[in-house]
Design brief:
Strand order of the largest sheet: 2-5-6-7-4-3-1-8
Largest sheet: 8 strands, antiparallel
Order of helices and strands: EEEEEEEHHE
Shape: globular
Number of strands: 8
Distance between the termini: 14 Å
Number of helices: 2
């Protein structure tokens, strides 16, 4: 298993984060960090097969009025069964040029983890 360079945080229940992905599906962001993010959908889609470029817009409450615009690559899809239903979990690795711009977001996630609003995974 590969070690991540940056920590990831479970943000599934954090309400101070707005996320838009260019996927046109009913996705739910679950994890986020300086190096990437993870989301799930309830339907498998051929348009979500890796490799694929993903465009994200993130807005953190209290961080900036302007959203962060980030690009990454969809690197994997893992199907799971939850409560008798298939769920598809997708992993995105942010492009290095964008990772370097996310220091503020990474610090905010670390603060939120320290306050118990999100937790490191």
């Amino acid at each position: 298993m590969t070690q991540r360079k940056h920590p990831r945080y479970n943000v599934a229940h954090f309400e101070g984060l707005e996320v838009q992905l260019n996927l046109h599906c009913d996705e739910k962001l679950v994890s986020l960090g300086q190096g990437g993010c993870g989301f799930y959908t309830m339907k498998e889609s051929e348009s979500l097969l890796p490799p694929r470029r993903i465009f994200c817009r993130l807005r953190f409450e209290g961080l900036s009025d302007e959203p962060l615009e980030i690009q990454g690559n969809l690197v994997y899809c893992r199907p799971y069964e939850v409560a008798g239903k298939k769920v598809y979990y997708y992993g995105v690795e942010f492009l290095q040029a964008f990772q370097d711009r996310l220091d503020g977001m990474a610090k905010k996630l670390e603060e939120l983890a320290g306050d118990g609003f999100v937790f490191e995974i």
